[in-house]
From TrEMBL:
It is found in: Nucleus, Nucleolus. Residues 95-107, 477-490, 766-780 have a biased composition (Low complexity). This is ATP-dependent RNA helicase. It holds the Pfam family Helicase_C. The lineage of its organism: Eukaryota, Fungi, Dikarya, Ascomycota, Pezizomycotina. CDD domains: DEADc_DDX31, SF2_C_DEAD. Residues 184-390 form the Helicase ATP-binding domain. Keywords: ATP-binding, Helicase, Hydrolase, Nucleotide-binding, Nucleus, Ribosome biogenesis, RNA-binding, rRNA processing. Belongs to the DEAD box helicase family. GO terms for molecular function: ATP binding; hydrolase activity; RNA binding; RNA helicase activity.
Amino acid sequence: MADDGMLMNFEIGDVPISNQVKFKGGRWRDRVKAQKSVKKWDTDRPKKDSNTPTVPSSGRPKTARYIPGVGVQIEGGEGDEADRPAKRPRTDSDAQPAQRPQQPRPQIKSGQTSSKLFTSNPTHTTTFDDKPAEETEEAKPSNAPLSGEAENFTALGLSRRIAQHLSTKLEMKAPTAIQKNTIPQLVKEDNDAFLQAETGSGKTLAYLLPIVQRITALSQNEDGSSTGVQLHRDSGLFAIVLAPTRELCKQIAAVLERLLRCAPWIVSTTVTGGESKKSEKARLRKGVNILIATPGRLTDHLDNTKVLDVGTVRWLVLDEGDRMMEMGFEDDLKTIVGEIRKDPLKHETKDGVVLDKVLPARRVTVLCSATMKMNVQKLGEISLTDAVHITATTTDEEKDAEGNMVESAFAAPSQLKQSYLIVPAKLRLVTLIALLKSTFARKGSVMKAIIFISCADSVNFHFDLLKSTAPPPKPKMAPSALPSPDDSPSFGTGANASTPKAPKVDTSTDDTVAPATYITSPANPSIILHKLHGSLPQSSRTATLNSFTSSKDPAVLITTDISSRGLDVPSVDLVVEYDPAFAAADHVHRVGRTARAGRPGKAVIFLQPGCEEGYVEVLKQGASSVPQPQLYDAVLQKGLSTPVQLPGGGETAGEDEGGRRNTWMSRAEALQLSIEQRLLVKEDDETENSRGGRNRYAPAKKDDPLLDAARQAFKSHVRAYATHVREERGYFDKGQLHLGHMAKSFGLREAPGGIGGGVVGRKRPANGGAANKFAAAGQGQKRKAVSREDDGEGGEVDEEARRRMKAKMNALAKAGASEFNIG
């Protein structure tokens, strides 16, 4: 024998040998997960019958390749088909549905990856009552005009000319509560005033009407006859109104322009950031009687524009004073108040007209604020002297034993219906789409909706995601209540104003207005999507707000807190707080964009299970009615009861774990999967590194704007999550934020790295790092610097303003938030 005589005999039994599967390509983490899932499936799969006939294997090992967005693809050679066991005949026992294994096979049909939205979600602690709520009587509007024969503007001290103009032209038959309490005080008295009223109660007209009344009294008697005094635009500057944002300044100017149509000889104008300072100087040189400005730009004009004479100024109005203090305008406000009070008050005009007989004999300061926070009290110490506190309901209950006014709680309008949604992080995006889809399911039920998001990058991403890829149709426009800078008079409003320019074709909304997808319905096939934040150019901001205000089609505005203060957009029926506000006061202002002037409205806020549910107690403090809880499944079931139209055509359809098709759960899975695939198309084509795996930290390709926008939005959102006020930071604990689940709400399969700033980094520095420095900076200074882009600044500023801005941004960068942008 040629061999050594050793014989070996192995018994392998009747069970066929399982070929080893090798994985190639993809990330190493994905290969490890796929290998574990194959082993788990081999362990859990039922054992084969020993009588089942098999075909010998070719012995060639199979290979598997993990393709992102497709799944595990098992490949083999010539003997692959022969490796499969022959099918056994079907028996009667097979009529019953077989129990599916707990772990599904990693190879997924149709080249898709499972989203798994409804697994591994945290459990909510809110108790939901299954019983339907009892129908209660509709709450009486708290900000509606008063009723009664005695409630009219003439009884408040206004002239018949102004009262008739309000009734016929502005369709205002009766004043609101805050107007009833404010107008007589400012018309008859010369004391400083602090106005505190809820949103949508007509606070702007409350301080504009007394100013216009006393200025018109210089040239007209009570019966409308002339006093012989010729008042014109060069007679002097009598009133200055300051507002924190450009949008609010333009809205106040629009209200004043409509009011001054009864007195066209009075001229008003605005000076705000983002406009040409040269044209503003030209308007000031020709003369103006009422000036509306942002603090930064007015400070610049006081320093550099010599023709701006404030010697005749009788009124200084600080609208939204708390917001101006939060945005870092304290130094500018001190400068403005000091410049106005520096020179003695002039008692007559250049033409010799005596002003003290009709106008106040002293400078009157009016401070308007929704709250009595510490910064407002500090602003009051700077600007007010023996001020009168005026609220909407001045009753005995709001006075102490000595008869002095006490601080009253500021609440949302009583007719506003508030609710909060408990939504896990993974389901936030599909729940938002389902909510909007159900909102616009019926024609005419909701015309306009506003979605508040924490940061500008997130606004950009959600706008790009929800907008249609088809060419936008020409929207139907109505005459706007907000004049565009292109078609407004060049030198203010009034009889002495210059001839308006010819209207120009406005193309500044090409990137901010687009038709929507996902949320359309057969009843509303056309929904116009808008976006607005402080990083946009001023022309785009003005044109976008003008488009949203005047749109006749159903419209949705995705915006930051830039739209939370003072804006009065008609027909806003729904406010969605997709990201909770940074402070409870901001929440009240957000929901105050609806239910204005006695009209009904709804507001919904998204909260995650866990610590965020405790935030409901804070919401109850600022609500006249208890906010109603709602679980995400009810919204998904209502919104996804019908298929969702996808951007590229087609509808959502899917199969859930139970094999059921076209259910709301399967549609939610299919909707999330389609969104993820929109971002994965370009991501999978990225260049792999030398080891065969894609660099997960590599930047997105330049030709993939949606994926890059999703990553940037996620990073900015996580940074913004850490900026809640100190008192409410316990409800929004960044340490409990699940980054992987939150990434799915941006259409990402995993959380991108490089968040930076030390806020939610992967490693915490040993010395406390930038996160502690960022928190130690304090909420006030932090939000002052990052919110500066939303104010009236911009365009041309002096070197001192540039130096102050650069110093603040450098300090913020050292604190680890150089990329932070809350818009």
